[in-house]
Design brief:
The protein is mainly alpha-helical and about 120 residues long. It is built from 7 helices and no strands. Helix 6 runs antiparallel to helix 7.
Length: about 120
């Protein structure tokens, strides 16, 4: 799988991120680093525990990382969740969290394939 194919699979913006990072090898390097990012796990754990401050922080981090990497679909849903958490009060975002899980799983699977290419 090429880097561009990976981005197509996840609904990412390959052209934008490649233009910003100036080369496909650099895009691949940073996309692979996403596999070790802990913000999604921290978000799920904090949300399930009702810790809205930590959930907000983790969602905000995931949003920023996905935006920087050009992971558009992941950015969009994490942005929506971040904004829902902004008042730092318990809110029901279970539908968005389910959607986030689906998008995150696709992203991890695609980037993992990139790692083995």
């Amino acid at each position: 799988m090429t880097v561009q194919e990976c981005y197509e699979m996840i609904g990412g913006d390959f052209e934008e991120v490649c233009g910003r990072m100036m080369d496909e090898a650099r895009v691949k390097k940073f996309a692979l680093k996403f596999l070790s990012d802990k913000s999604y796990g921290m978000l799920v754990e904090a949300y399930e525990a009702g810790n809205m401050e930590d959930a907000f922080r983790a969602a905000h981090t995931l949003k920023g990382v996905s935006q920087n990497l050009g992971f558009t679909k992941l950015f969009e849903i994490s942005h929506e969740i971040t904004e829902a958490f902004r008042p730092l009060q318990k809110v029901d975002v279970s539908a968005q969290m389910a959607q986030l899980k689906d998008v995150y799983d696709v992203t991890i699977a695609a980037v993992s394939q990139l790692e083995n290419a």
